[in-house]
Model the fold of this input.
Amino acid sequence: MALDEVGLEGYPSDPVPFRERRSFHEGKRRLPQDPRGAEAYLRKAVAAFPDDAEAIGELAFALYLQGRHAEAKPLFERSLALLDSPDVRVRYARLLYHMGRYGEAEENYRRVLGEDPGNLDARWGLAEVALALGRAKEAELLARQVLAVAPDYPLGRFTLAKALLEQGRVEEAKELLQAELRLRPDEEVAALLSRLP
Done:
């Protein structure tokens, strides 16, 4: 106990935790556009609050966005051990997908969907996993379910187009890719479209 900043005796007066909460909010605000800038703020927040599941999860996300998957993975796992958040679990599953650990990614997406069947991020992620595992018809169904609820879901048409291409349905896929590019320019979408006959 000490004098606080306005001179009242008998109250905790450490201003550092307050500043680091501001660091957390500033770091979170910068994501996903500036993951490197966000990282510095989030590291300060985690240093002040080492058991803050949300801050740890946001730091893991910042590292994931920078492609630093090996660093992000244990942080995601620590965050989930403290608080099993569907948002963090979906991001963790996406990380596993990018690491080629498709079975683990699928397990995590299905766990989220088991608790929240309406979670579109988990449903889209599961479609991507199904594609990676060669289950094109399942991927098509999942992608169509996402687009039925959210027709402008980012990369939803891209995923559906890839599933259709796996089934040899080139014209349908081209129309979807063109529609996706009209909604939002994306290099990966444009590259796939340019390779089609």
User: Anything to note?
Assistant: Residues 102-197 form a domain with the Serine Threonine Protein Phosphatase 5, Tetratricopeptide repeat fold (CATH 1.25.40.10). The two ends are 73 Å apart (CA to CA).
